[in-house]
Write a structure and sequence with these properties.
This protein is α/β, with parallel strands linked by helices. The chain contains eleven helices and eight strands. An eight-stranded parallel sheet has the order 7-6-5-4-3-2-1-8.
Length: about 290
Amino acid sequence: MIAFPVTPLTPGGSLDAPGLRRNLERLLEHPLAAVVAAGGTGEMFSLHPAEHRTLVETTVQVAAGRVPVLAGTGFNPPLGAELARQAATAGADGLLLFPPYDTRADPEGLADYYAALASATPLGAVVYSRDWVDPSPDWVERLAARLPSLVAWKDGSGDTRRYQRLVHRVGERLTWIGGAGDDLVPGYYAMGIRAYTSSIANVAPRLSLRLHEAAASGEAAELASLMREYVVPLYELRSRRRGYEVSIMKEMMSALGLAAGPVRPPLAPLRPEDRADLERLLERWKPIL
């Protein structure tokens, strides 16, 4: 289970580095596989480069070699390469490559973009295939052959049919990560994947780890129970509004006394009419918090 921490902000909207440190210290009490600084749940796209540097530095300091730290990067080749280099200088162990700004990129140009980011440092790189990035197996195979530092592929679309085709074509050349949400653990693990990224870990790391354990060991009844009681109700709430995938997690953390704060635009804050449902959800989650 790879944790995707939120980026805590102060009430005024600035980076809360002490709060991040406290959150990470709590999170790293659990046996994670890795932690991602400035991931999707960490609002990477909203960060200033200086904030990005502080975020990675703090995560590396708290991790202290206990688990690998991946740093998110993207936007465009010059900025993405600069963020990658400063992450490497800060001590990150690898890079998570987000899609570029241009949602109409030609496949050749898209490959050049990932090459520019991956070649900026000696660090291993993970492509985060999300939003509009939906490449063919041929394209992924060519990219893996072109970039020796490409070590893994994180699916963010939730299309297990397409992902299965990528895995079948490229095979063990890459490590395959389930990355569209905790709610897709049953589907990912049914096709043989044994790693996934969790936003639930911000609130209930024991639940995230138990999802991995139950799915990996074939405990179907236990996995179904966890999904039914905890995971699916959360994702139903998160689906009510764009941006809730981060907003809801931050609201849950705030309710539990963890550092979280507001989200930054264009993510949307929690609507008053959804707050009562969130409170009921937290009551339901007490056994696994």
